[in-house]
Known about the structure:
With 296 residues, the protein is of the alpha+beta class. Among the domains are: 56-102 and 139-207, Spore Coat Polysaccharide Biosynthesis Protein SpsA, Chain A (Alpha-Beta Complex), CATH 3.90.550; 212-279. It contains twelve helices and ten strands. Strands 3, 4, 5, 7, 9 and 10 form a six-stranded mixed beta sheet that branches. The protein has a two-stranded parallel sheet with strand order 1-2. The chain has a two-stranded antiparallel ribbon with strand order 6-8. The longest helix is centred in the C-terminal third of the chain and has 26 residues, at 233-258.
Amino acid sequence: MDPEASCVVIDNASGDQTLERVRSSAPAFLGNIEIIENQRNMGFAAAVNQGVRRSGGEFVLLLNPDVRLKTGIQSLVAASESYGLSAGKLVDEVGQSQRGFTIRRFPTPAALAFETLGLNRLFPSNGVNRRYRYLDRDLEEPDLVEQPAGAFLMFRKDVWERLGGFDESFLPVWFEDVDFCKRAVDAGYRIQYLPDVVATHEGGHSIRQLSSGCRAVRWYDSLLRYAAKYFSPWEYRAICLTTILGALPRSVAGMFAQRSFAPVSTGFEIVALAVRRSISPPRNVSPNVTKRENDL
Length: 296
């Protein structure tokens, strides 16, 4: 570890052996590591904001617990100094690029409609999905991009301060990193993607405590929250409708595949959520973001 760097570890009430592993695996560096133990899971955005507030550096590197650096990060620092934000390439355990996840474009109404209808999963080579997931570009070429995964993202601390941090209304996870990058780009910053900076990513580590049904409902809730924040009212309600239309056949298919009525129960919960959201869109911006942005 760089002697001038600090490391802040946020434990969001993990309930496993995470803290013990941190303390036992890096005893020589514990002087540079601050561990914050939350008594409840506050969500990814709130945990990030906690960590950034406690960090003392000019640059902040977000790393999920299932991400391991394989290279140095100096080029990320240089890019963040110039543009505001930067990101490297995520690979799986065998070194394959995590195409479609490492970087994406900002979701359009069409992209989210295709997501909620299941079309991107059934026909991943369709034009909307190819554009949304950057399947139309070479991941080995550096370039400016729209939205890297929050699992491996660097930004200047002053960018975070100007934006008011991550929006904590996205709970417990999903789309808060998309929202942060969207607000950063809208504010005039840019995001540099550098494939020579590499990290392995296991995927799904932080959400395994949630049941599959709970994960599905929370994912749709965050998706609709993002759509309400950035799309027109009619576009937003169209996404609510496609959520309803997509949830019904998906739950029936899940019932037969799993030989359980649990997917049907989840499907009805998603439908009820979409109906409620279409009538009363969610309040999208957490108090800390509203206050800070109004102060600009």
